[in-house]
Amino acid sequence: MYIETRKRAIVKTISWRILATLTTAAIVYGLVGRLDIAAAAGGIEMVLKMIFYYFHERAWNKFHIGKHQVTPFVLWFTGLSGSGKSTIADQVYRKLKKKGYKVERLDGDTVRSIFPSTGFTKDARNTHIRRIGFLASMLEKNGIIVVASFVSPYKESREFVRELCDNFVEVHVDASVEECERRDVKGLYKKARAGEIKNFTGIDDPYEKPESPGLYLNTDEESEEKSLKKVFAHIGQFLD
User: Fold this and answer.
1) Domain range list for the chain
2) Which positions are annotated as active-site residues?
């Protein structure tokens, strides 16, 4: 959030008036052909309009007419690896950013690349999600929209994050394990089935589906475009 300081308002006033005064003096000189009259007219105008402009700007800061109030929120995408949650979340983030909203993106792969020692046991996953949830809640409290995408397979950790946030929207991105395997360009499911990866959600570790998510997306049946429309229709309550 930015506020205009008195010093900034004064500097803006001076810079604008210098430009405007030079323009006025040039016009007067062009009309009467006398430099002294042009300079006098420009000088008088500069002093008076600097004063008027400064108080005009400060007065407008007191009013909220034409200012758009946005309620910050945490948009939390959860689902199996390969369900499409990161792809959809990326699109939502880019569209919000393009429209000028203050928004941050938190993604499971990105965060784990920064903290590679984070484990995949149930306790490690829950601790990881709680930490990310705390970060998301702090961003939200500072007026920033958060778009997060994490497998977050356990209900207890998602509920923990919900309690931290003022406006938490849980988005369940649902897709069958078979479809997720078909989309898996990294070969993670293949490695998990071969035993090379342990505690892999959907294979040898459970995914606890949200019982009452804020928004449900079935990417087995829905196109990415349709899912995006559903997301923006839902979060419109915070943006309007």
Assistant:
1) 6-60, 74-239
2) 152
